User: What shape does this take?
Amino acid sequence: MLEVKDLHVSVEGKEILKGLNLTINPGEVHAIMGPNGAGKSTLSAVIAGNEGYEVTSGTITFEGQDVLEMEIEERAQAGLLLGFQYPVEIPGVKNVYLLKAALNAQREARGEGEIPAPEFMKLVREKLAFMKMDNSFLQRAVNEGFSGGEKKRNEILQMLVLQPKLAMLDEIDSGLDIDAMKVVAEGVNSLRSAERAILMVTHYQRLLDYIEPDYVHVLVDGRIVKSGDKDLALELESRGYEWVTEESAA
Ligand code: ADP
Ligand code: MG
Ligand code: MG
Assistant: This one.
Protein backbone atom coordinates (compact mmCIF):
# COMPACT_ATOMS: atom_id res chain seq x y z
CA MET A 1 0.00 0.00 0.00
CA LEU A 2 2.64 2.52 1.08
CA GLU A 3 6.26 2.21 0.16
CA VAL A 4 8.88 4.67 1.34
CA LYS A 5 12.30 4.10 -0.15
CA ASP A 6 15.57 5.73 0.85
CA LEU A 7 13.78 8.94 1.74
CA HIS A 8 15.90 12.00 2.40
CA VAL A 9 14.15 15.14 3.58
CA SER A 10 15.52 18.52 4.54
CA VAL A 11 13.90 21.36 6.42
CA GLU A 12 15.42 24.77 5.92
CA GLY A 13 18.56 23.21 4.51
CA LYS A 14 19.02 20.77 7.37
CA GLU A 15 18.72 17.09 6.61
CA ILE A 16 16.12 15.52 8.89
CA LEU A 17 15.31 12.19 7.24
CA LYS A 18 18.45 10.43 6.10
CA GLY A 19 17.51 7.40 4.06
CA LEU A 20 14.28 6.12 5.56
CA ASN A 21 12.63 2.90 4.39
CA LEU A 22 9.16 1.77 5.35
CA THR A 23 6.62 -0.60 3.80
CA ILE A 24 3.02 -0.72 4.96
CA ASN A 25 0.49 -3.28 3.73
CA PRO A 26 -3.29 -3.10 4.01
CA GLY A 27 -4.60 -4.26 7.37
CA GLU A 28 -1.42 -3.44 9.25
CA VAL A 29 -0.90 -1.17 12.22
CA HIS A 30 2.55 0.36 12.49
CA ALA A 31 3.83 2.29 15.48
CA ILE A 32 6.79 4.62 15.17
CA MET A 33 8.72 5.41 18.30
CA GLY A 34 11.93 7.30 18.87
CA PRO A 35 13.60 10.15 20.71
CA ASN A 36 12.55 13.77 20.33
CA GLY A 37 13.74 15.37 17.13
CA ALA A 38 14.35 12.05 15.36
CA GLY A 39 12.08 12.97 12.45
CA LYS A 40 8.85 11.17 13.35
CA SER A 41 6.55 14.12 12.70
CA THR A 42 8.55 15.00 9.61
CA LEU A 43 7.86 11.55 8.16
CA SER A 44 4.08 11.74 8.48
CA ALA A 45 4.03 15.38 7.36
CA VAL A 46 6.01 14.55 4.22
CA ILE A 47 3.75 11.63 3.38
CA ALA A 48 0.68 13.83 3.85
CA GLY A 49 2.23 16.56 1.73
CA ASN A 50 2.56 19.39 4.20
CA GLU A 51 4.59 22.35 3.04
CA GLY A 52 8.05 23.27 4.19
CA TYR A 53 9.73 19.92 3.60
CA GLU A 54 12.18 19.35 0.80
CA VAL A 55 12.49 15.80 -0.45
CA THR A 56 16.06 15.65 -1.73
CA SER A 57 15.99 12.00 -2.78
CA GLY A 58 14.05 8.79 -2.42
CA THR A 59 10.50 7.80 -3.29
CA ILE A 60 7.08 7.44 -1.71
CA THR A 61 4.44 5.39 -3.49
CA PHE A 62 0.87 4.76 -2.39
CA GLU A 63 -1.07 2.05 -4.19
CA GLY A 64 1.46 2.32 -6.98
CA GLN A 65 1.07 6.08 -7.38
CA ASP A 66 3.95 8.49 -6.98
CA VAL A 67 2.91 10.39 -3.87
CA LEU A 68 5.53 13.08 -4.29
CA GLU A 69 3.87 14.12 -7.55
CA MET A 70 0.51 14.59 -5.85
CA GLU A 71 -0.87 17.76 -4.30
CA ILE A 72 -1.88 17.64 -0.65
CA GLU A 73 -5.58 17.51 -1.56
CA GLU A 74 -4.99 14.71 -4.04
CA ARG A 75 -3.26 12.71 -1.35
CA ALA A 76 -6.16 13.16 1.05
CA GLN A 77 -8.61 12.18 -1.67
CA ALA A 78 -6.57 9.12 -2.51
CA GLY A 79 -7.07 8.04 1.09
CA LEU A 80 -3.89 9.26 2.77
CA LEU A 81 -4.88 11.20 5.82
CA LEU A 82 -2.87 12.70 8.62
CA GLY A 83 -4.86 13.45 11.72
CA PHE A 84 -4.60 17.06 12.60
CA GLN A 85 -4.30 17.85 8.96
CA TYR A 86 -5.92 21.04 10.24
CA PRO A 87 -4.20 21.38 13.59
CA VAL A 88 -4.58 25.09 13.83
CA GLU A 89 -7.59 26.79 15.21
CA ILE A 90 -9.75 28.05 12.42
CA PRO A 91 -11.74 30.86 13.98
CA GLY A 92 -15.29 31.05 12.71
CA VAL A 93 -15.16 27.78 10.78
CA LYS A 94 -17.36 25.27 12.47
CA ASN A 95 -16.18 21.73 12.88
CA VAL A 96 -19.26 20.42 11.15
CA TYR A 97 -18.52 22.42 7.99
CA LEU A 98 -14.92 21.30 7.81
CA LEU A 99 -15.94 17.67 8.18
CA LYS A 100 -18.62 17.98 5.55
CA ALA A 101 -16.36 19.81 3.11
CA ALA A 102 -13.63 17.18 3.52
CA LEU A 103 -16.09 14.34 3.06
CA ASN A 104 -17.64 15.92 -0.02
CA ALA A 105 -14.22 16.58 -1.57
CA GLN A 106 -13.48 12.90 -1.15
CA ARG A 107 -16.80 11.87 -2.68
CA GLU A 108 -16.33 14.26 -5.56
CA ALA A 109 -12.93 12.71 -6.30
CA ARG A 110 -14.69 9.33 -6.52
CA GLY A 111 -17.33 10.75 -8.83
CA GLU A 112 -20.03 10.67 -6.19
CA GLY A 113 -22.35 13.54 -5.42
CA GLU A 114 -22.53 15.50 -2.21
CA ILE A 115 -23.73 13.62 0.81
CA PRO A 116 -27.36 14.46 1.59
CA ALA A 117 -27.60 16.54 4.78
CA PRO A 118 -29.68 14.03 6.80
CA GLU A 119 -27.32 11.21 5.90
CA PHE A 120 -24.34 13.32 6.90
CA MET A 121 -25.85 14.29 10.24
CA LYS A 122 -26.72 10.69 10.99
CA LEU A 123 -23.17 9.59 10.22
CA VAL A 124 -21.55 12.34 12.27
CA ARG A 125 -23.83 11.87 15.28
CA GLU A 126 -23.10 8.17 15.29
CA LYS A 127 -19.35 8.81 15.25
CA LEU A 128 -19.63 11.52 17.90
CA ALA A 129 -21.47 9.15 20.18
CA PHE A 130 -18.80 6.53 19.61
CA MET A 131 -16.11 9.03 20.59
CA LYS A 132 -18.17 10.07 23.62
CA MET A 133 -18.27 13.61 22.27
CA ASP A 134 -21.11 16.01 22.77
CA ASN A 135 -23.11 17.15 19.72
CA SER A 136 -22.14 20.71 20.60
CA PHE A 137 -18.66 19.95 19.24
CA LEU A 138 -20.04 20.27 15.75
CA GLN A 139 -21.00 23.86 16.24
CA ARG A 140 -17.70 24.90 17.75
CA ALA A 141 -15.02 26.47 15.60
CA VAL A 142 -12.30 24.03 14.58
CA ASN A 143 -10.07 23.36 17.56
CA GLU A 144 -10.89 26.74 19.04
CA GLY A 145 -10.55 26.51 22.78
CA PHE A 146 -10.32 22.72 22.59
CA SER A 147 -8.35 20.99 25.28
CA GLY A 148 -5.56 18.64 24.23
CA GLY A 149 -7.85 15.68 24.77
CA GLU A 150 -10.69 17.26 22.81
CA LYS A 151 -8.38 17.93 19.87
CA LYS A 152 -7.31 14.31 19.85
CA ARG A 153 -10.89 13.07 19.96
CA ASN A 154 -11.73 15.45 17.18
CA GLU A 155 -8.84 14.08 15.16
CA ILE A 156 -10.17 10.55 15.52
CA LEU A 157 -13.70 11.75 14.76
CA GLN A 158 -12.39 13.13 11.47
CA MET A 159 -10.83 9.74 10.70
CA LEU A 160 -14.05 7.91 11.53
CA VAL A 161 -16.03 10.15 9.19
CA LEU A 162 -13.51 10.18 6.34
CA GLN A 163 -12.42 6.52 6.62
CA PRO A 164 -8.99 6.98 5.00
CA LYS A 165 -7.09 4.02 3.55
CA LEU A 166 -4.00 5.01 5.45
CA ALA A 167 -4.66 6.83 8.70
CA MET A 168 -1.64 8.60 10.13
CA LEU A 169 -1.76 9.74 13.72
CA ASP A 170 1.01 11.79 15.28
CA GLU A 171 1.41 11.63 19.06
CA ILE A 172 -2.13 10.55 19.63
CA ASP A 173 -1.51 9.92 23.30
CA SER A 174 0.05 13.22 24.25
CA GLY A 175 -2.01 15.23 26.67
CA LEU A 176 -4.56 12.49 27.26
CA ASP A 177 -5.69 11.20 30.60
CA ILE A 178 -6.30 7.50 30.86
CA ASP A 179 -10.04 7.69 30.14
CA ALA A 180 -9.56 9.86 27.06
CA MET A 181 -6.80 7.56 25.89
CA LYS A 182 -9.13 4.59 26.08
CA VAL A 183 -11.78 6.40 24.02
CA VAL A 184 -9.19 7.43 21.45
CA ALA A 185 -7.82 3.90 21.34
CA GLU A 186 -11.31 2.48 20.80
CA GLY A 187 -11.76 4.92 17.95
CA VAL A 188 -8.51 3.87 16.35
CA ASN A 189 -9.28 0.20 16.85
CA SER A 190 -12.63 0.65 15.15
CA LEU A 191 -10.72 1.88 12.10
CA ARG A 192 -8.82 -1.37 11.84
CA SER A 193 -9.82 -3.41 8.83
CA ALA A 194 -8.29 -5.65 6.20
CA GLU A 195 -8.33 -2.79 3.67
CA ARG A 196 -6.99 -0.05 5.91
CA ALA A 197 -3.63 0.62 7.47
CA ILE A 198 -2.67 2.78 10.41
CA LEU A 199 0.60 4.56 11.03
CA MET A 200 0.88 6.06 14.47
CA VAL A 201 3.59 7.95 16.25
CA THR A 202 3.69 7.46 19.97
CA HIS A 203 6.02 8.22 22.83
CA TYR A 204 4.62 5.77 25.26
CA GLN A 205 4.37 2.04 25.31
CA ARG A 206 1.21 2.43 27.41
CA LEU A 207 -0.89 3.31 24.36
CA LEU A 208 0.17 0.09 22.68
CA ASP A 209 -1.56 -1.88 25.42
CA TYR A 210 -4.77 -0.51 23.95
CA ILE A 211 -3.88 -0.37 20.27
CA GLU A 212 -1.83 -3.42 19.53
CA PRO A 213 0.53 -2.74 16.63
CA ASP A 214 1.68 -5.35 14.14
CA TYR A 215 5.01 -3.58 13.83
CA VAL A 216 7.00 -1.22 16.00
CA HIS A 217 9.75 0.84 14.38
CA VAL A 218 12.41 2.84 16.11
CA LEU A 219 13.29 6.05 14.33
CA VAL A 220 16.60 7.57 15.38
CA ASP A 221 18.34 10.44 13.63
CA GLY A 222 16.32 10.25 10.45
CA ARG A 223 16.36 6.51 9.90
CA ILE A 224 14.45 3.48 11.07
CA VAL A 225 17.16 1.64 12.93
CA LYS A 226 15.16 -1.24 14.33
CA SER A 227 11.80 -2.88 13.71
CA GLY A 228 9.99 -5.49 15.70
CA ASP A 229 6.64 -6.31 17.19
CA LYS A 230 5.00 -4.97 20.34
CA ASP A 231 7.64 -6.59 22.52
CA LEU A 232 10.12 -4.09 21.11
CA ALA A 233 8.01 -1.29 22.59
CA LEU A 234 8.20 -2.97 25.99
CA GLU A 235 11.94 -3.24 25.66
CA LEU A 236 12.20 0.44 24.72
CA GLU A 237 10.09 1.34 27.73
CA SER A 238 12.49 -0.37 30.08
CA ARG A 239 15.80 0.30 28.31
CA GLY A 240 15.31 3.61 26.48
CA TYR A 241 16.63 4.32 23.00
CA GLU A 242 20.36 4.47 23.44
CA TRP A 243 21.00 0.74 23.12
CA VAL A 244 19.18 0.66 19.78
CA THR A 245 21.36 3.47 18.48
CA GLU A 246 24.50 1.72 19.66
CA GLU A 247 23.37 -1.59 18.23
CA SER A 248 22.62 -0.06 14.85
CA ALA A 249 25.97 1.80 14.77
CA ALA A 250 27.90 -1.37 15.58
P1 ADP B 1 10.05 14.22 16.14
O1 ADP B 1 8.64 14.27 15.73
O2 ADP B 1 10.68 12.89 15.98
O3 ADP B 1 10.26 14.74 17.53
P2 ADP B 1 10.41 16.21 14.08
O4 ADP B 1 10.14 15.49 12.82
O5 ADP B 1 9.34 17.08 14.61
O6 ADP B 1 10.89 15.18 15.18
O7 ADP B 1 11.70 17.11 13.92
C1 ADP B 1 12.95 16.60 13.49
C2 ADP B 1 13.94 17.72 13.42
O8 ADP B 1 13.56 18.64 12.42
C3 ADP B 1 14.07 18.51 14.72
O9 ADP B 1 15.43 18.78 14.90
C4 ADP B 1 13.27 19.75 14.42
O10 ADP B 1 13.79 20.83 15.15
C5 ADP B 1 13.47 19.94 12.93
N1 ADP B 1 12.32 20.57 12.32
C6 ADP B 1 11.12 20.01 12.11
N2 ADP B 1 10.27 20.87 11.50
C7 ADP B 1 10.96 22.01 11.34
C8 ADP B 1 10.66 23.29 10.77
N3 ADP B 1 9.45 23.55 10.25
N4 ADP B 1 11.63 24.21 10.77
C9 ADP B 1 12.85 23.94 11.28
N5 ADP B 1 13.21 22.79 11.81
C10 ADP B 1 12.29 21.82 11.86
MG1 MG C 1 6.93 14.86 16.62
MG1 MG D 1 16.71 13.57 12.58
Remarks:
- Helices lie at 40-48, 72-78, 95-109, 117-130, 148-162, 178-191, 230-239, 242-249.
- Residues 2-249 form a domain with the Rossmann fold fold (CATH 3.40.50.300).
